[in-house]
Each structure stands twice: as C-alpha cells, then as structure tokens.
C-alpha cells in the first residue's frame, strides 16, 4: 500500500504547506489534513504554535497551475496580527526575525 497523494481532491483553491526545522533530525514538509491547508487554518496553526520552527511556506494551486514561496508574505501578515502583543508564540520568534520585514 502506497502513501496517499498530497494533491488535494478539491484542487480549485490555494494549498499552503510548511517546511519545519526539526534540528538534528533535519527539515521536513509537515503532513496536513486537506482542510488544514487553507490559508486561514495555516495562520491559526502558526499562531497556536503548532509548528516548532517553521522556515518556509509554499502555496500552490493545481487548477491555476502555479506554485510560489509565500514565506515573506505570511511573515508580514503574522507580524501585523501580532502587532504589539507580548505573547508571540516562541515557535514564531525566529521565523518573524528572519522574514517579512
């Protein structure tokens, strides 16, 4: 039995995936349920600290035929959401320092 496809059944929307750094174990693209690959869910998961050390975020749309690195864009949006808050998740601190200026 093979691995399930990462291509969503509903390819008419943008899909977001996170590359997480696991330290000595290396980097890996995180598995995500189809409904968890929407931008709003991604943003919520990042704010909740569900990724330990995100380093890159890509988006793609099968129907439209494109893919791109959205790391800087997502970092800028996260920085706006955090505003002057003191409770930025520890998992986002390095990400925000390195991106989205």
Helix and strand run: EEHEEHH
Total domains: 1
Share of helix among residues? 25-40%
Largest sheet: 4 strands, antiparallel
- Please state the structural category: alpha+beta
Rg of Cα set: 14 Å
Calculate the mean pLDDT score and round it. Answer: 86
The parts where pLDDT drops under 50 for at least 5 residues are none
Strand order of the largest sheet: 2-1-3-4
Total strands: the figure is 4
Number of helices: 3
In what range is the share of β-strand residues?
15-25%
Q: Gap between N and C termini, in Å?
A: 45 Å
Instruction: Identify the overall geometry.
Output: globular
Structure in words:
The chain has 101 residues and is an alpha+beta fold. It has one domain (15-98). The chain has three helices and four strands. It has helices spanning 39-48, 71-82, 90-98, and strands at 15-21, 27-29, 54-61, 66-69. A four-stranded antiparallel beta sheet has the order 2-1-3-4. The relative contact order is 0.19.
Q: What's the short story on this structure?
A:
This protein is of the alpha+beta class and 101 residues long.
